[in-house]
Design a protein that fits this description.
Elements (H helix, E strand, L loop, with lengths): L5 H10 L9 E4 L2 E4 L17 H10 L2 E5 L3 H6 L6 E2 L2 H4 L11 E5 L2
Parallel strand pairs: 3-4, 3-5
Antiparallel strand pairs: 1-2
Length: about 110
């Protein structure tokens, strides 16, 4: 295994601390709290945030799906392995592509 390949993942996970996006669905104590995403505008302040430790645990266990909301070009350069690419400007119109039962973590850095 080449350590160089782990650097983008580490940078992206560290960037989660500063991420404005958060979890669409939060699995907490065995129950899921749904976030209202019926409007066409999604405010970052309305979304629950996830800590870096929780994001890393969700990645390691496969419990969450990561969504990279940066441009397609930025996604092509570096992204979390397995992350979906849905640029922020397209997110509202593409919500129908997402499983409402899944736990999504959005990130932009």
């Amino acid at each position: 295994m080449v350590r160089r390949n782990l650097l983008p993942l580490g940078v992206v996970l560290l960037g989660l601390i500063l991420v404005f996006g958060a979890i669409l669905l939060l699995n907490q104590n065995g129950s899921q709290d749904q976030v209202n995403v019926t409007s066409t505008e999604i405010s970052a302040q309305d979304l629950p945030r996830v800590s870096l430790a929780d994001a890393k645990a969700a990645f390691d266990s496969g419990d969450a799906v990561f969504i990279d909301v940066r441009t397609s070009g930025a996604y092509q350069e570096h992204h979390i392995p397995g992350a979906l690419s849905i640029p922020l400007g397209e997110l509202s119109s593409r919500l129908n592509e997402l499983d409402p039962e899944a736990w999504y973590i959005l990130y932009c850095t």
